[in-house]
Amino acid sequence: MRYHSHIVTSLLLGATVAAQTPLSFTASYTAGVVIGSLLPDIDEPKSYVGRRSFGMSNKVKEAFGHRGMTHSLLVWGMIALVVTWESSSLFATGFVLGYLFHIIEDFLSVQGVPLFWPLQAKRYKIPLYRTGNIVEMMIFYAAFALLVYIGTKENLFYEWWKSFGSFM
Ligand SMILES: [Zn+2]
């Protein structure tokens, strides 16, 4: 999945979670969701984050391959523990959720993800789309439309805008 699809589908999932729970859809929460939803592709040098990782991405890919360790639920669990131990901020919560959303989104691609690395190298998937194909584009536009719908219906954009002062 391309980075803009990850951002939009993760924001949609993040908005859905915020609408169903006491979590507030603030600027720092959404910043956390976006950054968390981009970070797992640090193992792909050609990805959006990979191109901005100052060479770190090549090292990660050399060591583990693309969609290796960074796309494992077990690794996510470790990161989630450390991050939530360090901070209970909305940014940290958004980050942990965004990272999880990325794994779920890639799980729906034909390439799949090694959910239980390092215990298992097997890639799990429900193959709905192939990266960059028409189905991914449709997911992107549908997620965008749903995000606008939920954001408006649940008053999330207003909440987001109001929070901006405290984020700066
Ligand atoms: Zn990925």
Ranges where pLDDT stays below 50 over 5 or more residues in a row are: none
The tally of strands reads 0
Q: What about the largest sheet?
A: none
Strand content: under 5%
The multimeric state of the shown protein is: single chain
Overall outline: globular
Number of helical segments? 7
Structural class: mainly alpha
Short description:
This protein has seven helices and no strands.
Describe this structure in words.
The chain has 168 residues and is mainly alpha-helical. The protein has one domain (3-160). It has seven helices and no strands. Helix 1 (3-20) crosses helix 5. The model has no long low-confidence stretch (mean pLDDT 92). Zinc ion (ZN) binds next to helix 5.
Write the layout of secondary structure elements.
Layout (H helix, E strand, L loop, with lengths): L2 H18 L6 H12 L17 H9 L8 H14 L3 H18 L26 H20 L2 H12 L1
This protein binds zinc ion (ZN).
Keywords summarizing the entry:
61% helix, binds zinc ion, 168 residues
